[in-house]
Design goal:
The protein is mainly β and 449 residues long. Helices cover 10% and strands 35% of the residues. It has helices at 2-22, 110-122, 323-326, 444-448; strands at residues 36-37, 57-58, 68-69, 73-79, 85-90, 96-100, 132-137, 147-152, 161-164, 167-171, 175-180, 193-197, 209-213, 219-224, 243-248, 253-259, 263-269, 276-281, 292-297, 309-310, 314-315, 334-338, 342-347, 360-365, 378-384, 390-399, 407-408, 412-417, 423-427, 432-438. Residues 67-287, 329-438 form the Pyrroloquinoline quinone-dependent pyranose dehydrogenase beta-propeller domain. Keywords: Membrane, Transmembrane, Transmembrane helix.
C-alpha cells in the first residue's frame, strides 16, 4: 500500500510538472522588427498546447502622466474620463464622435472561458460596455474639448460609424443602423432603421465592426472578425465573418467583398485613390514569432488565407488541408509584427503631422497578450511610396504605454485626425483621447492671418 501511495504521489508530481512545462509559454527568438515590413521573417511555427500568456496588467495613468511622442511632437490630453473609448469619427463641422464600448456579455464556459475572463480583467477590458457614443466639441480649436454630450445611448457594443448625406450609420456588434442627422446635432434620440444584420452568434469573439463609406456614397464596407482562432468551432459559425462585407444601401443587399482575414478592424482609404486598406489580427498559438499581424489593401473577391493558410499559402498544420484553395489566395501587403494587435488606421496625407510622418498610414497597435516579450502598445507610422505602396519599417510615433514594471498605463486603440490636422488616439485603458501635434504648430486662426 505504501509503495502504491508513493507511486501515486510521484505520478502526481510528474503530471503537475508536465502541466507547468506545457504552460510555460513560448519566448520569441526574433526581434519584433524582423516580423514587420513588406517581407517579414516567417520563421518555423511552434505549435502550442496552451497559449503563451503574458499580459501587461492595466494600471491607468495618474494626473500629469502620459505616453511619449516622437521627437519634434507633443502629446496632450484632448478628452478624459471616458468609459473604454474605442472608435472615433470626425463629423464635417469638426465634432468628434467616440464610441464608449466593450465586448458584449459572453457565455463562454470551461477553462477557455475562465482564461479569457481573467485575461480581459487583467488587461483592463473586463468592464461592461457603456453602449454609448459621445460627442466631443472643440469650438475654439485649442486642442481641448469645450463641450461633451451623450450623443447616442442604449446601443449594443457599438463600434464603426459613417456619415452619408443626412444619415449616420452605426455598427452594433449584431447589426447596422441608420439614424437621421443634421450638422450641429448634439443628441440623437430617433430609433435607428435597420440596414443589415451581422453575425454575432455566441461566443462572438472579435466583436468589433468597423464601417467605411464608399466614395460615391452607394455602399458601406463592414469589417467583421472571425468567431474563433482557426475555425475550431466549425465553419458554420464563421458565415460572413473573417471578412470585409459590402452593403448596397439602395437595396440593403450584402455580399462578401473580401475574406480570409482572421480579424480585420480599422479601415481607411489611401488619399487620392480608390484603394482602401485594413489592419488584421492574425492567428494565435503558433509561437511568439508567428504569425505577423498585417496591413493590406482590401481587393474585391480576394481571399487572404484564413483559416487554412497565412501570408500567401503558408500552411497552418492545425487546420485540415485545403490545397486547391491555396493557389487563389492573396498575400498581405505589409507585416506589422507578431501579436501586436493592430486596431486603428488613418492616413496622414494632407494632415498636420508634417515630415517624416506625412505620406503614409498611422496604425494603433493595441498590444499583445500572448507573446514574450510584450509587443505593440504603441502607435506607428508606415511610409507609402510614390506608387502608393507601403515600404520600409514602421516608425514609432507614440510610445510609453507600458512602464518599466510592465504595467499597461494605457492601450492605444483607434486613430483619427481632428479639424486642425492633429492626430487623435483613443486609449481604452486610460479612458483618454490623446492629441499629437508638431511642436510649435500654429493654431488655424493664427495660420490664416
Amino acid at each position: 500500500m505504501k509503495h502504491f501511495r508513493n507511486l501515486l504521489i510521484l505520478a502526481l508530481v510528474i503530471a503537475i510538472g508536465a502541466g507547468f512545462y506545457l504552460m510555460r509559454g513560448d519566448t520569441a527568438r526574433l526581434p519584433l522588427e524582423a516580423t514587420t515590413g513588406v517581407e517579414p521573417n516567417l520563421t518555423n511555427v511552434r505549435k502550442e498546447n496552451f497559449p503563451t500568456i503574458n499580459v501587461a496588467e492595466a494600471e491607468p495613468w495618474n494626473e500629469g502622466e502620459g505616453p511619449v511622442a516622437a521627437d519634434g511632437y507633443v502629446v496632450e490630453r484632448f478628452a478624459e474620463g471616458l468609459d473604454h473609448p474605442r472608435s472615433m469619427f470626425r463629423l464635417p463641422n469638426g465634432d468628434i464622435l467616440v464610441a464608449e464600448t466593450n465586448s458584449p456579455p459572453r457565455t463562454m464556459g470551461g477553462i477557455e472561458g475562465w482564461i479569457m475572463r481573467n485575461l480581459m480583467s487583467k488587461a483592463g477590458a473586463g468592464t461592461p460596455s457603456a453602449n454609448r457614443i459621445t460627442l466631443l466639441r472643440d469650438s475654439d480649436k485649442d486642442g481641448k474639448i469645450d463641450e461633451q454630450f451623450a450623443f447616442m445611448e442604449g446601443l449594443n457594443s457599438p463600434f464603426g460609424m459613417a456619415l452619408i448625406d443626412d444619415l449616420l450609420y452605426v455598427a452594433n456588434t449584431n447589426e447596422i443602423l441608420a439614424f437621421p442627422y443634421k450638422q450641429g446635432d448634439t443628441k440623437i434620440t430617433a430609433k435607428g432603421r435597420k440596414v443589415a444584420n451581422l453575425n454575432a452568434k455566441a461566443p462572438n469573439n472579435h466583436w468589433t465592426r468597423d464601417l467605411l463609406a464608399s466614395k460615391d456614397g452607394k455602399y458601406l464596407y463592414v469589417s467583421v472578425g472571425s468567431n474563433s482562432n482557426i475555425g475550431e468551432n466549425g465553419m458554420e459559425l464563421e458565415k460572413e465573418r473573417a471578412a470585409v462585407l459590402r452593403i448596397e444601401l439602395a437595396t440593403n443587399k450584402k455580399i462578401i467583398f473580401a475574406d480570409g482575414m482572421r480579424n480585420p478592424v480599422g479601415m481607411a482609404y489611401l488619399p487620392g485613390t480608390d484603394k482602401f486598406y485594413t489592419v488584421v489580427n492574425e492567428r494565435d498559438m503558433l509561437g511568439s514569432d508567428m504569425v505577423p499581424d498585417y496591413l493590406t489593401e482590401v481587393r474585391f473577391a480576394s481571399h487572404y488565407g484564413w483559416p487554412w493558410h497565412f501570408w500567401g499559402g503558408n500552411i497552418d498544420p492545425r487546420v485540415e488541408k485545403n490545397l486547391d484553395h491555396r493557389q487563389y489566395e492573396r498575400r498581405p501587403d505589409y507585416g506589422l509584427g507578431a501579436h501586436v494587435a493592430p486596431l486603428g488606421i488613418a492616413f496622414s496625407h494632407d494632415q498636420g503631422l508634417g515630415a517624416p510622418y506625412d505620406r503614409g498610414a498611422v496604425v494603433a497597435r493595441h498590444g499583445s497578450w500572448n507573446r514574450k516579450p510584450l509587443a505593440g502598445y504603441d502607435v506607428v507610422y508606415v511610409n507609402f511610396d510614390d506608387k502608393g505602396e507601403p515600404t520600409g519599417k514602421p516608425k514609432t510615433l507614440l510610445s510609453g504605454f507600458v512602464d518599466e514594471n510592465e504595467k499597461a498605463r494605457g492601450r492605444p486603440t483607434m486613430v483619427a485626425f481632428d479639424q486642425t490636422g492633429a492626430l487623435l488616439v483613443s486609449d481604452d485603458v486610460g479612458g483618454i483621447i490623446w492629441r499629437i501635434s508638431r511642436k510649435g504648430a500654429a493654431k488655424p486662426e493664427a495660420a490664416a492671418e
